[in-house]
Each structure stands twice: as structure tokens, then as C-alpha cells.
Model the fold of this input.
Amino acid sequence: MASTEMPRTPEPGQANEADARTLAEIRATIDRLDAEMHGHLIERGRAIGTLIKVKGTSRPGAAFRPGREADMMRRLVARHQGALPLWTVEHIWREIITTFTRMQASFDVAYDAGANGDQMRDTARFLFGFTVALHRQPDALSTINHIRESGTDLGLVALEQPASAGAWWRALGRPAGPRIMALSPFIEIAGRPADHPALVIAPELADPTPPDLELFAVTMLGVDPAPVIGAAGGTVLARVHRELMVAVPRGTQLAALSARAGLDDIARVGALSRGIAVGDVAVNPVLYQRLDEAGALK
Ligand SMILES: O=C(O)C(=O)C[C@]1(C(=O)O)C=C[C@@H](O)C=C1
Done:
């Protein structure tokens, strides 16, 4: 009886022998790369062990180096290429940095859930990963108070606030008080997740890196000071009636600016490294540097 067996053809989705060999090779490459990445992370952990001894860090305020983190992010953006989304790499590094900072000195994160609680929680998880405990707060002021009382925790406050929040930034600064340390998102790029504009608040830091921008609470005395602040390379971040929060380039002569712009009751509330805008996204040019075609920041 003649055989009724048909030549074997691959099922839909099933690889033939050559494809199966290629797949096995690709998986071997993936396994090798995974083992290398894991090995590098273990080695990074050992390096942090030595860094802890040298830095002598025991409180988080002394461990955070937002200026160095900004620099690491700039280099990450500059060297990135290929189909892997930039924000995936950013998030992986945020998780790494948080984990290694917490190895130096543990901290939790409080976030302001006043207006967009779910988005703020997403942003907190994007920035700090899943090893950190989150404390949901009803508004910006409670978030700042949480940081002050804990003495160790970081906070996340939405940049856009309901009118009921008032001039919340007036609670920042003061000797040894909480202050603004970073901008989120740091990398502005179309389609990214966790893009709700927010500020990272920290206890007093020991970061020696000079920031790009300094932030002040000011009271306007007369006409809108925004044009004069803009001409000085600064920007208004928030305002409620006559109370403003402004960002100006580090080293701005504040006495001269306040005289020209009509500002009073000036208090430093923090500092920032400028973020990076990639591609065709609308950004505040004071807060974000643009990446040009050649991948250089301008
Ligand atoms: O460079 C440092 O001082 C570190 O503590 C290391 C590290 C990192 O994990 O890369 C962690 C926290 C700082 O904010 C910056 C960088």
C-alpha cells in the first residue's frame, strides 16, 4: 500500500529547520547578553559598596546627586539608537539609580494626588521603580510636609495645580527645608509614558554639581514681570494672584532682576538641571534643551 504520508510542511507560525537554528542562535545571544547585563549590575552593586565607604552616606539627602543623574541621562540620550524606545531605557536607569541610592540610605516617596492621582502615581513608579514605598498625599502642601517630617523621603508635586493649592511653593526652601531638585519628565519625547509635568522635592542636599536653573518664590509688585524674566533667560513656572514661582539661569543677578521686574519677598525654593527635548515636541525652551539632528544638545 502506497504511503499516504505527505512531506512535512511547517504549521503556520512553526519554524522550519533553518529558522529553528536561527531562533536558537538568537536566543543564545539573548541569554549571553542577559547574563552580561546581570553581571554588570552585580558589579555595579559592588562599586556602590565602595562608594558608600568613600561618601560616608547615611542620610538620603547626602546620597542624592541630581546633577550627576541629569548628566547620566544626557549621555544615555546621546548614545541611544535603534528601535528600543528611549523611555524604556530611561525607566530602566531610573530603577537602577533609585535602587543604588537606597542601598546608600533608604527613603520612601510621597506624591501629590490632589488633581491627577493616578498619573502622579505612574510618574512616581516610572521615576523610582517598584522597590520604593509610595505615600499618597491629598495635595502639594501635604506632600511637602511629609518630606519635612520624614527628614529622609522624596516627594513628587504636580506642576499644574488646582486654584485651591494656592502658592504651595512658599512652603519650600527656608533653612534646611524641603526644596525642588528635579524636573519630570526629564526627557520630553512624543508618545512617552508618565509625561504629567511634575517636580521632584527633596530634603536638603549635599550635591556639589552646580544646577542649570535656580528656582525662586517671588511676589510681583506691579505689572506682569514675565517679559522681563523671559528677557533674562528665565521663565514663570507657576502663579497664583501676585505670587509666582520663577526659574532663572544659575548666577542671575537677582537684585538687579527684581528691581527691573518689580519683585519682592524673594526666597530660593530649589534648583534644576534642564531636561532634554527629543524630536518635534512643544516644550518650554528655558526648561528643556533640544537635541539636534546630529544628537548634540543646544
Ligand atoms: O554617583 C554617586 O554619588 C552615586 O551615589 C551613584 C548614583 C548611581 O547609582 O549612579 C546614585 C545616586 C546619585 O543620585 C547618583 C548616582
Q: What stands out?
A: The longest strand covers residues 263-272. The chain has one domain: 64-290. The chain has a mean pLDDT of 93.
